[in-house]
Design goal:
five-stranded parallel sheet; alpha/beta; 8 strands; globular
Length: 233
């Protein structure tokens, strides 16, 4: 975890990561650690970081609001404030002393270098890898990421009932305003529709997860993308 390079957390070690709210109760965290498990918790604020630290978490994945896909907020009924990643890292670092993994808004090498300077031990790339050769991203999702006609991302509950950042499409425009906070029920309700749309190459009703830096996602091998992200480290 002391590596100053882009990548994941403890790739060679057993680990348990909590990404959609608190990982578990302190007693469960203690049992996982006793079994040799590295417990990583996603947080979106200093307050969440403190709760995770008090529960005995080993590592914090600090997720900025610029991240694509689901927010790891502990309170999904409220959308996290749009705090830049570097500022969020500084605030969390001032609150807890745990190792930090930076996530959200890491579109280029300058973003990675800035996150490390702000207190992160390492970073976690997401949207930057969605068009990688090895990624399992669907064909309509890949095409949407490269489509110059798509000009914005939105944070929406429309697909799953939990705040998530995606490329705006017809479905988000129609349903974001009244979508309930109802994960995972809404996720299961819309899943058949989304699967059918992906098969039919219909991007207007697919969850096109994407962070704010989606324009910098490129179609090439993942190793090349990660090497470029690390070029200023």
């Amino acid at each position: 975890m002391r590596s100053r390079r882009p990548g994941g957390c403890g790739a060679g070690d057993p680990g348990r990561s909590g990404a959609l709210g608190p990982a578990s109760e302190p007693a469960v965290v203690a049992s996982l650690r006793a079994a040799g498990t590295l417990v990583v918790q996603t947080v979106t604020s200093p307050a969440e970081a403190l709760l995770a630290a008090e529960a005995g978490t080993d590592v914090l994945a600090v997720q900025a609001s610029a991240a694509g896909g689901h927010s790891g907020t502990f309170t999904p009924e409220r959308v996290p404030a749009p705090v830049p990643l570097t500022e969020l890292l500084r605030r969390v670092r001032a609150t807890v002393s745990l190792p930090l993994v930076a996530a959200g808004g890491l579109a280029g090498p300058g973003d990675v270098a800035g996150a490390l300077r702000a207190g992160a031990e390492t970073v976690m790339a997401g949207t930057a890898l969605l068009r990688a050769d090895e990624a399992g991203t669907s064909l309509p999702h890949r095409a949407a990421l490269a489509d110059p006609g798509r000009r914005r991302t939105v944070v929406t509950r429309a697909f799953t009932g939990r705040p998530a950042r995606a490329l705006a499409n017809r479905f988000t425009d129609r349903h974001s305003g009244h979508a309930p906070s109802g994960y995972p029920a809404l996720h299961h309700l819309t899943r058949p529709m989304r699967q059918a749309a992906a098969s039919a190459d219909e991007p207007e009703v697919i969850h096109l997860w994407a962070g704010t830096g989606y324009r910098d996602a490129t179609a090439e091998p993942a190793a090349r993308i990660l090497t470029r992200l690390a070029s200023q480290v």
